[in-house]
Amino acid sequence: DGGITQSPKYLFRKEGQNVTLSCEQNLNHDAMYWYRQDPGQGLRLIYYSQIVNDFQKGDIAEGYSVSREKKESFPLTVTSAQKNPTAFYLCASSIQYRGNTEAFFGQGTRLTVV
Amino acid sequence: DQQVKQNSPSLSVQEGRISILNCDYTNSMFDYFLWYKKYPAEGPTFLISISSIKDKNEDGRFTVFLNKSAKHLSLHIVPSQPGDSAVYFCAAIADFYNTDKLIFGTGTRLQVFP
Question: How far is the C-alpha of B60 from the C-alpha of B66, rounded, in Å?
């Protein structure tokens, strides 16, 4: 059945290491998004992609990188340049046309950097 | 600059009563609004939406009201049930750069008690 999958659910990394969070969808959605959730700050957009091989920075892109080589996949790399990487990361996808724009979210990945 | 604001971080309501969650926005270019519900350690799920050409949209126990002149929308849940206890996010879309970029509020935690 269709859906959007993030893995792993929990991830621990040492400070200074890069880490890549996986996001896969089989909904045939054009647009994909990465959000970060911190207590009291809601969901903040990191990167988004409208089509394959194209992506744009969101509001808090510094210290992150993405790729969109396939329609189904939008991995997020948290680099060592991200000053406060410990957070709950959410991936989402949506159909890229107006009138049916609600996004579908994955279950999230909680990243803890020690 | 918080373009979508949910000024009440939490709300407590008795089962069977009405829950009213509020959301304010600052950007008059927003033309589509959505509400998402989120349980702990899970991704948000879409609840209900409203286009700026309407002032009300109803789906079962959930109704969203939009007041464009006040740049205000609200979600009404009637009657409230314990399973409604979650964090509710308001989100808005503007056709920036021809993409459906969702901008989220900070969320309101609803607790429905017996």
Answer: 17
B107, two tokens: 């969320």
* Residues of chain A that touch chain B, judged by Cβ-Cβ distance less than 8 Å: 4, 6, 9, 31, 33, 35, 40-45, 48, 50, 56, 58, 88, 90, 92, 94, 96, 98, 101-108, 110
Contacts of B46 in chain A (CB under 8 A): 102-104
Q: What is the DSSP letter of B113?
A: E
Q: Any idea how long chain B is?
A: 114
> Please, which pLDDT band fits residue B1 given cuts at 50, 70 and 90?
low
Residues 76 through 105 of chain B touching chain A, CB cutoff 8 Å: 89, 93, 95, 97, 99-105
Give the dihedral sign, CA A38/B100/A93/B36: positive
Q: How high is the mean pLDDT in each 10-residue block of chain A (114 residues)? A: 86 91 94 88 87 90 96 95 91 71 87 91
- β-sheet bridge partners, residue B83: none
The torsion angles phi and psi of B84, rounded to 5 degrees, stand at -80, -10
User: Identity (one letter) of the amino acid at B41?
Assistant: A
pLDDT tens profile B65-99: 999 999 999 999 999 999 999 999 999 987 654 55
